[in-house]
Amino acid sequence: MDVRLEKLKQDKEITDKKVYRAELEKYQRRLLALQQMLFQEKIGLIVVFEGMDAAGKGGAIKRMNEQLDPRGVLVHPISAPAPHELRYHYMQRFWRKLPQHGQIAIFDRSWYGRVLVERIEGYASEPEWKRAYDEINAFEKSLTDERYIMVKFWVQISKDEQLKRFEERQLDPVKRWKITDEDWRNRKKWAMYVEAAEEMLLKTDDPHAPWHVIEGNDKKYARVDILKKAVAHIETILGQMGQPLPEYELFGAK
């Protein structure tokens, strides 16, 4: 996927709250129907979220989970590796978090940290992060060859929108925990993150584990678009597997 992130128009939005709620619920219920089918057929689903700080990944994940059976969903917020995890290959901690066949695992950041933050902050040497593209592609291919479906989202916001959200978080006591000195420090490396993300999208996009770039300036639009694209990809892969799609009407999602 050859994309210039800062050239995205960021003009897509949903302004009508009723339309937003209707669209959101429709795709949430479709995802619920698909979850039940994946459970019955013992097919695992892996959803990866990456994006700029304050892009809205957490809110999108919350809406993705809202109607699902919580017994079959795992959400993994990924931060820096713990000291004991540094003794292993960097992928080891992600292998341990994979869902069972029939479960859903959502990664709020992921193994792509190797070619993003670890690259930019110097935690991985240049030979290490450069070879990681092939390692990651092989990892994902091994999973999708073995009854897993994978879909990946990069949520992009403009630099001005990020500043607006940072300042709102700083002033809101309920949201202040979301903003740290590290977020402000990372903002100064915006151009480096854009360059790394564009190379990542170019080198790790594949039909079996595709990237979807989401215009995130409007949160409502982004949440619906993520659900819509997740449902579409799952349906496509199920069709390739020869699996019939669920009857959405039974879940109130025509």
TrEMBL record:
<keyword id="KW-0175">Coiled coil</keyword>
<keyword id="KW-0418">Kinase</keyword>
<feature type="domain" description="Polyphosphate kinase-2-related">
    <location>
        <begin position="16"/>
        <end position="236"/>
    </location>
</feature>
<dbReference type="GO" id="GO:0008976">
    <property type="term" value="F:polyphosphate kinase activity"/>
</dbReference>
<dbReference type="InterPro" id="IPR016898">
    <property type="entry name" value="Polyphosphate_phosphotransfera"/>
</dbReference>
<feature type="coiled-coil region">
    <location>
        <begin position="5"/>
        <end position="37"/>
    </location>
</feature>
<dbReference type="InterPro" id="IPR022488">
    <property type="entry name" value="PPK2-related"/>
</dbReference>
<dbReference type="InterPro" id="IPR027417">
    <property type="entry name" value="P-loop_NTPase"/>
</dbReference>
<protein>
    <submittedName>
        <fullName>Polyphosphate:AMP phosphotransferase</fullName>
    </submittedName>
</protein>
<dbReference type="Pfam" id="PF03976">
    <property type="entry name" value="PPK2"/>
</dbReference>
<keyword id="KW-0808">Transferase</keyword>
